[in-house]
Amino acid sequence: MLKVSGAAVAATSILGLNACVSEAKNAPGGSGAKKKVLVIGAHPDDPETGAGGTMMMLRKMGHDVTSVYFTRGERGIKGTELDEAARIRTAEAIEACKIMDVKPLFMTQIDGDSQINAERYQEMHDLINEQKPDVVITHWPIDSHRDHVNCSALVLDAWQKLGEPFELYFFEVCAGSQTRHFFPTDFVDITPVRDLKVKATFCHKSQRPEAWYEEEHGLMDEFRGMQSGVKYGEAFVRFHRSKASGSLLDIKAE
């Protein structure tokens, strides 16, 4: 884990990638250990925009990465029935995952109507327990979109109930308008894969990314890169962890 505090110091703590093999050997769990990473986003395109570059960098290191979709984006296509929108957006997410070389996994919540109750706590708990990840990356909980907030809350609850067995990180999306009060602890240099991140995001044609990507996530990529001293970056908040040390995301870029 990078021990930094404050924006000025954070600029020196890039989670980049300088030697895929050696970093994999240095990952927590032993020499050459392949780790399992879940990126859990509320809607199709959330994992891509919030952590798509990091997912691809981790794949380059040989780690097992799954993009988990909390909903299928049922209300994301205006004038389209929920089932049809889900079908379209599921197909788009699968195509994006092919580009990122990660596995897609879909949960059963409904876009715009996600729930926090005993059943939904159990669903998230069971999914994470079954997957047994070493790292989970999900939404920052202070957010203007209720689905993002609910997704984050259920992941945090599962992490606690399972005994804090994995590294937990939070990503940002549409910083300022959705994710708010986000002060990163960790950065990943995504410059080598940024073009592929854009390509994966643009698989979500139904969301018209040409109308918003560059003005929202494009600026985020540039700003987080500038903040950490590279061209393009992604930023994360690492949750305090009392039962383990080290960090899988403590990686360097070539």
Keywords:
Rossmann fold, disordered N terminus, 8 helices, 254 residues, 7-stranded mixed β-sheet, alpha/beta, 7 strands
Largest sheet: 7 strands, mixed
CATH level 1 class label:
Alpha Beta
- Tally of structural domains: 1
Helix-residue proportion: 25-40%
Oligomer: single chain
| The CATH homologous superfamily | LmbE-like
- Look at the structure and give the mean pLDDT: 86
What's the total helix number? 8
β content, as a range? 15-25%
How does this model look, in words?
The chain is α/β, with parallel strands linked by helices. The chain has a single domain, classed as Rossmann fold (3-Layer(aba) Sandwich), CATH 3.40.50. Helix content is 39%, strand content 16%. It has a 7-stranded mixed sheet with strand order 3-2-1-4-5-7-6, with helices on both faces. Helix 3 runs antiparallel to helix 7, helix 4 packs antiparallel against helix 7 and helix 5 packs across helix 6. The radius of gyration is 17 Å and the shape is globular.
